[in-house]
Design a protein that fits this description.
Blueprint: H1 3-15, E1 31-37, H2 41-57, E2 61-67, H3 71-81, E3 87-91, H4 94-100, H5 108-114, H6 123-128, E4 130-131, E5 134-135, E6 138-144, E7 146-150, H7 151-156, H8 168-178, E8 180-185, E9 188-193, H9 199-204, E10 207-214, E11 236-237, E12 241-242, H10 247-261, H11 265-273, E13 290-295, H12 299-306, E14 312-315, E15 329-338, H13 346-356, H14 359-369, H15 380-384, H16 391-397, E16 402-404, H17 412-427, H18 433-469
Parallel strand pairs: 1-2, 1-3, 10-13, 15-16
Antiparallel strand pairs: 3-15, 4-5, 6-15, 7-13, 7-14, 8-9, 8-10, 11-12
Helix pairs in contact: 2-14, 17-18
Amino acid sequence: MNSRISIVLVLFAFFGVAKSYAAPLNSKERVVVNYWEKWSGFEADAMRAIIDDFNHSQDRIEVRLLTISPIDVKLLLAASSGSPPDIAGLWEYNIPDFAEKGALLPLDDAMAEAGLGADHYVPAYWELCRHRGFTWALPSTPGCVALYYNKRLFREAGLDPNRPPQSFAEVEAMSRRLTRVEVAREGRRVRIAYDELTPAERKSGRYTIVQVGHQPNDVGGMNVSCWGYWFGAKYTDGDRRALANDAGNLASFRWLRDAMTNYGIEQMKDFSAGFGQSQSSQSPFLGERCAMVMQGPWLPNFIEKYAPDLEWGVTPYPAAPGVADDAPLTLIISDMLVIPRGASHPREAFEFLRYTQRREVNEKLAKLQRKFTALREVSPEFIANHPNPAIKFFTELSRTPNARAVPRLAIWRDYDTEMSVAAMSVRFLLKTPEEALTEVQKRVQWRLDRVIRRWDIVKDERVAEWRERERW
């Protein structure tokens, strides 16, 4: 066992890495390519099927999969120690940070040699693979978000179950109509619509929320800080200036606050306290206690598992008036495949990456995970035979000209954390939207200024290194 493998195994033992190898092949001639991925459960099983297909399609390379958590922390540690895997699965927001820290290999030369480029991908997803003029990743399975709604709850509230909200105002009006409470009247508890409470009952607060129309804080795969896009927010001005207190973010924070205060902060807190994760049987939507939720194409997996009788539909989440009037708006995300700097077998690793980008392979992975594909061309069979009944909708929504992604900043995780903490303080009336976002602006800009100062010092040397590494 060579020293590099020994170091990696020590790291596994010390940091508690979960091992999940694909079945080894009986061949001493193969180059072993180690692949770290964040997926578990059916998503990891889907990639194992792809790996098994690849391993049996040729006799030179054996890819071995390990499930790692938290992968972003452990991959940076492994790369800095000189003992990274050959392939890793990250999220799209990791790419700027990992690239600027020198943890990834640029893929441009290898892609050009393989005939891969921008014309193979939906433009919005191609941009997620790029940073500072270089290509660092290839998409495995992408996603985007939309509004799921419960048709049974719509019907019970007197709403047309086949007509979801068409405007932001309708989301608000329907949400109010769908909210139900329990209150004591004439010595017994009765369940009524929130709007049926008397002014005195509302003032007393002696009611219990048992069903809500919509909870903006329950956003599934979307960061709560990204609601600003639905209000026309800009999060940055280029890559040097943060815009946390942009007018659109202020509007979204006021809306998040009002979603709590309109129904009673303590009552909303009590309602939320009884639920678990958004992708489990303990979630308000899957438990049919919340009529509308923002989620991605993966939600039908959990509906089938935890709420198979749920009647659901899905529609684009309408933006506020004057925002995205020409086409639907969505937030796009993507799982990404990268080759870390210091990988022992980058060429063999890229051969597997190239394999995953074949249309039939990429579509198989997407079907197994019940998602869509970032490839520009999609086969008719992919849509027709897909197990997710909403896949055509999500495929089309992902290609909208109003697709948004989180800012391509190395500090985005810090930015998002600051925004999420600020949103909570606003929702519970600890701060006003103006106070909270002014503080976020100061802290985020300070961090961004530090990163930019370092980048300005090293950028010429770093770009030269990237150009040299292209020829690995």
